[in-house]
Inverse folding.
């Protein structure tokens, strides 16, 4: 039974699939203080949050069974993603479900700002009738500057067009083709500042975007510009915004998000030009249901070991590619496990070479499986998420390459490692209908199913050596299920690969290594 802990308010309809799942126990505990969260997380297999819960490294560390963190929404800045990655915890979000709601909210804020709606409302219900004071400006024929033309920025652009606005956009990843398709003028930030009557930001909060809109930026803007932030507090320097409004440079600002949330009594709130909402961008019935459904499904997939798509700390793999790579996963992982056990010493470098039909695919996910397999021999907490991170942390040099040399196989994966004591190579293939096979170890051709208990023995190709190995194992009650011998030339270096029915004890391994003409013995468990 998987325990899924939910610590922020989520739509009940949205989490129905989790509640109905036979293998899941849902525990809803909102408003936990940090100590309570640390206590609860200890028993959770998955954690589901919105933007309120701060999922710190300490929380992730305390989650001894934690496999997944689901964010019912877009921004993951309340989650220490790096800490999750290093612990092998998958972080998934729901990037699409609240796009429309947030774009509509940003547009609502834009109109409210242009027409002083919140200020006029407050004045009117207080018994005043100040028609002159609340004269606004039209959006029609004005220029809207959009900083960050992703999902939400693009939806805002569409709405701006409907209102007859010119749209200029800055996004470092915006191509000329995409700008043309959306109907926006691509601009540098400085050009955008110089042209825009309204500026709305729709970027994530990152090192680059923190205080992107600062004092220098305000200086480059038109006098009378109006600013909207429904993305993240911190993208706009609130202190610089306050000064720019007081100086008359900025005519008004509409803010849904703040550097500190909740912001408490903020100096910006004393300015009549500022209108605010309490982080409501995604707060619609529809968006909350969408994101909760999306993230619940993702969590179920992760817990059940099924494919999932919106991982924040894993590269996304298109479904068609997932389907093509799926049959190779076992081969990839077992080649990694095999090679790590075949070579003694600390791993320095691992090179994977793909050939045959695999050269046409994006093989990065298979390399990840190989790294996982190789590291799992040395480390206990390695998984598909943290394997490349752990390899990098330990200074292992990973190389992936492709070659047209097929050596007669329709597909071939070769893994070569260098440790501080040895260098070894193993090649495997996926035989149509028969599954994975190891077809070469170093330069010796063999044919072995990569599973169970294997003995890899390096020896001299001399009469009697095979018999001596067989006799020793037999007398020590170790049954040999299969045996393969590979050699390059008669009487030269050779390898023996045995599949045995049970693990072989260290003293038997030591005795095997002492036999005449036997040079080395490695036990490999797959
Ligand atoms: N107020 C809310 O309730 C609410 C709701 C949903 C999303 N959001 C926030 O809105 C933001 C955007 O969400 P989205 O779904 O559109 O994300 P997205 O990833 O689709 O788009 C973000 C865009 O920002 C661009 N970008 C990144 N760095 C940039 C930079 N330095 N300058 C300019 N552009 C840059 C990216 O290229 C991308 O196109 C996120 O921060 C998200 O957390 C807020
Ligand atoms: O990044 C998001 O998805 C929004 O900020 C929504 O946050 P919320 O789930 O706390 O409303």
């Amino acid at each position: 039974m998987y325990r899924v802990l939910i610590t922020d308010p989520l739509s009940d309809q949205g989490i129905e699939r989790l509640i109905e799942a036979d293998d899941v126990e849902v525990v809803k505990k909102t408003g936990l203080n940090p100590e309570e969260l640390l206590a609860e997380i200890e028993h959770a297999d998955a954690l589901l949050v919105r933007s309120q819960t701060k999922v710190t490294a300490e929380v992730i560390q305390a989650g001894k069974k934690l496999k997944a963190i689901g964010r019912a929404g877009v921004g993951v800045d309340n989650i220490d993603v790096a800490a999750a990655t290093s612990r092998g915890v998958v972080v998934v979000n729901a990037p699409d479900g609240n796009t429309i709601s947030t774009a509509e909210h940003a547009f609502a804020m834009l109109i409210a700002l242009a027409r002083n709606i919140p200020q006029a409302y407050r004045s009117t219900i207080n018994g005043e009738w100040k028609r002159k004071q609340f004269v606004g400006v039209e959006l029609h024929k004005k220029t809207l500057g959009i900083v960050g033309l992703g999902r939400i920025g693009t939806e805002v652009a569409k709405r701006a067009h409907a209102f007859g606005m010119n749209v200029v956009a800055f996004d470092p990843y915006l191509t000329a083709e995409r700008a043309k398709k959306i109907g926006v003028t691509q601009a540098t930030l400085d050009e955008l500042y110089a042209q825009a009557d309204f500026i709305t930001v729709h970027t994530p909060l990152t090192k680059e975007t923190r205080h992107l809109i600062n004092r220098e930026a305000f200086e480059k803007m038109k006098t009378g510009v109006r600013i909207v932030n429904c993305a993240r507090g911190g993208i706009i320097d609130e202190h610089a915004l306050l000064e720019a409004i007081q100086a008359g440079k900025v005519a008004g600002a509409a803010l849904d998000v703040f550097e500190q949330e909740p912001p408490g009594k903020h100096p910006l709130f004393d300015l009549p030009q500022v209108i605010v909402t309490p982080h409501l961008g995604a707060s619609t019935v529809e968006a909350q249901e969408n994101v909760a459904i999306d993230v619940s499904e993702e969590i179920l997939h992760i817990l059940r070991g099924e494919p999932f798509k919106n991982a924040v700390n894993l590269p996304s793999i298109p479904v068609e590619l997932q389907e093509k790579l799926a049959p190779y996963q076992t081969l990839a992982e077992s080649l990694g496990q095999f090679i790590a056990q075949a070579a003694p010493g600390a791993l320095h470098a691992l090179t994977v070479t793909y050939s045959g039909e695999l050269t046409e695919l994006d093989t990065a996910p298979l390399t990840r499986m190989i790294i996982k397999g190789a590291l799992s021999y040395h480390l206990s907490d390695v998984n598909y998420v943290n394997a490349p991170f752990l390899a990098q942390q330990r200074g292992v040099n990973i190389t992936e390459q492709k070659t047209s040399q097929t050596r007669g196989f329709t597909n071939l994966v070769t893994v070569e490692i260098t440790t501080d004591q040895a260098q070894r190579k193993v090649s495997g293939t996926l035989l149509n209908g028969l599954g994975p096979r190891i077809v070469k170890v170093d330069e010796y051709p063999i044919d072995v199913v990569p599973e169970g208990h294997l003995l890899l023995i390096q020896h001299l190709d001399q009469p009697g050596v095979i018999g001596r190995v067989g006799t020793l194992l037999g007398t020590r009650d170790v049954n040999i299920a299969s045996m393969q011998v590979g050699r390059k030339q008669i009487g030269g270096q050779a390898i023996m690969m045995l599949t045995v029915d049970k693990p072989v004890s260290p003293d038997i391994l030591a005795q095997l290594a002492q036999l005449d003409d036997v040079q080395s013995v490695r036990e490999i468990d797959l």
In short: The longest strand covers residues 347-356. Residues 50-51, 72-75, 98, 279, 281-283 surround 3-phosphoglyceric acid (ligand 2) (CB under 6 Å). The two ends are 27 Å apart (CA to CA). Residues 431 and 437 are 7 Å apart (CA to CA).
